Amino acid sequence: MSNPFENTEGIAKRTMVLFFVVDTSGSMAGKKIGAVNDAIFNVLPEIRKISEDNADAEIKIAAITFSNGAKWLYDEPKPADEFSWPYVNADGMTDLGEAYRMLNEKLSRNAFMNDVEGSYAPAIFLMTDGEPTDDYKKELDRLNQNKWFRVAIKVAVAIGEKDDVNDEVLTEFTGTPEAVLRAHTPEALAKMIRLVSVTASKIGSQSSTVGQESRQKTFTEELNKQQQEWQPVNSADDEDEEWN
């Protein structure tokens, strides 16, 4: 007897795009960019598993790097099982404003948010170790007018010591200081990239009737729960863990 369901197509999933926004300026050279490369590469299998197990949403990944200007690593978001992280090098300035401009362009139903089945609000993960060298405020103002950006889960990691990165710049991006983290060591950075990526993927792709502000709050609360786990690996006291 034939199976009446064998030709039935699966239920179409909505899409949640996870954006990596990665500083590849000269100050990131060495251990910093090495830690970023390794951490993103190693977390991809977990993101793929979350996407495979999710009955409601497919996770796609988009990545942009910025130094002298900015560039997308792929011309469209890739399904998690097709996304490959090409190890990137670090050189040049810190044109964060250009990254914001290009991100604003793609946060549109005419660009990266054009899934025919519909899209959940994205999750956007910024990683940087220095001060912007271009007019980032003008582009951030424009980005803040973007509806997709306003409802996105946003988080930023400051890489290095407090004097290296202006926390106010990152708070302007996330909208809350609670979503700005600092990695003092390579080990801490790797742990944060994994935790942020996995948590954002889980919460961002959940089917829910709550508003997107509630998702940002839920995401931030979950990160705060994990602070104690980071502390033992987020100290600059060990000379072996210094960035340079």
Low-confidence spans: 1-9, 236-240
Largest sheet: 7 strands, mixed
Q: Tell me the number of helical segments per DSSP (H or I, 4 or more residues long).
A: 8
Summarize model confidence as the mean pLDDT: 86
Overall helicity: 25-40%
Percent of residues in β-strands: 15-25%
CATH homolog superfamily:
von Willebrand factor, type A domain
Number of domains: 1
For this structure, the CATH topology is Rossmann fold
Distance between the termini: 68 Å
Tell me, briefly, the overall form.
globular
CA-based gyration radius: 18 Å
Broad structural category: alpha/beta
Give the total of beta strands: 7
Order of helical and strand elements: EHEEEHEHHEHEHHH
In the CATH hierarchy, the architecture is 3-Layer(aba) Sandwich
Supply the CATH class: Alpha Beta
General description of the model:
By secondary structure, the protein is of the alpha/beta class. The protein has one domain: Rossmann fold. It has helices at 31-53, 96-106, 136-143, 147-151, 167-174, 186-204, 212-225, 227-230, and strands at residues 14-23, 57-67, 69-72, 78-79, 123-128, 153-159, 180-183. Strands 1, 2, 3, 4, 5, 6 and 7 form a 7-stranded mixed beta sheet that branches. A hairpin with a 1-residue loop joins β2 (57-67) and β3. It is globular and about 45 Å long. The chain starts with 13 loop residues before the first strand and ends in a 14-residue tail after the last helix. The model is unreliable at 1-9 and 236-240 (pLDDT under 50).
